[in-house]
Amino acid sequence: MHYSADEIRRRAEALGPWFHNIELGGIVTAPNHFLGDYPAVKWRKFADSIPADLSGKSVLDIGCNGGFYSIQMKRRGAAHVLGIDSDREYLEQARFAAAVADLDITFEQLSVYDVGALGRRFDIVLFMGVLYHLRHPLLALDLIRAHVAGDMLVFQSMQRGSPEAEPVAADYEFWDAAPFERPDFPKLHFIEERYAADPTNWWIPNRACVEAMLRSSGFEIVSRPEEEVYVCRVAATSAAEGAVHPARGPRP
After folding, report:
1. Does 180 map to a domain?
2. How far is the C-alpha of 8 from the C-alpha of 165, rounded, in Å?
3. What is the extent of the structural domain holding 156?
4. 3-state DSSP percent of the chain in helix, strand and coil, to 5
5. What DSSP letter does each residue of 108-148 carry, written as one string?
6. How confident is the model at residue 249 (pLDDT cuts 50, 70, 90)?
7. Is residue 22 part of a domain?
8. Per residue in 28-46, pLDDT tens?
């Protein structure tokens, strides 16, 4: 279906506000975004880390928002792109954006905690800008690893605190509190009320925490093409015995 510029403008305004600034037939959906041309400004920094030709590949975009990354994956020729989000209004935006772009993308209203219900694995899983909106972030990563992650996970999270990620020991003595004072020790900062006027910001990790959580959930970090973005593969083993079974093994 062809949309005129006036139709796109009217519909985009009716569906607003948009968090994804997407160019649709010469109309941009979030021209005054506080982060600029977002997420395109971030995408340009790591786009080369994802194969340019995704022919025959399946992609799951978790927390797809207005559909920017789903659209990029389909434009690279992915055979099947599924975008999921728990927010109905974001999904309406994503469906409209895909329709204007004339791209066959499926969008469903699902939470990251529901990924097991999909019953399949995907060649590429995108998990962009979602972790810090979750009350149970490690559970989400465990579920992704257990149920849907295939060859590649592309992960992004806002980070605060130290940008360093020095090695940590495999164990510490009970009375050794010094590591916890290190700025580069893995930390999740808990937001009880709001951060950036957003009540859905729950946990904000530092860099070391992001990398530790990815490893703990069974992902091997292949590259860090952008300061908040990680390209990972599924590792042979995971520290989690199961997303709802937090035990690490027998007690000493």
Report:
1. yes
2. 45
3. 53-234
4. 30, 25, 45
5. EE--GGGGGGG-S-EEEEEEES-GGG-SSHHHHHHHHHHHT
6. low
7. no
8. 999 999 999 999 999 999 9
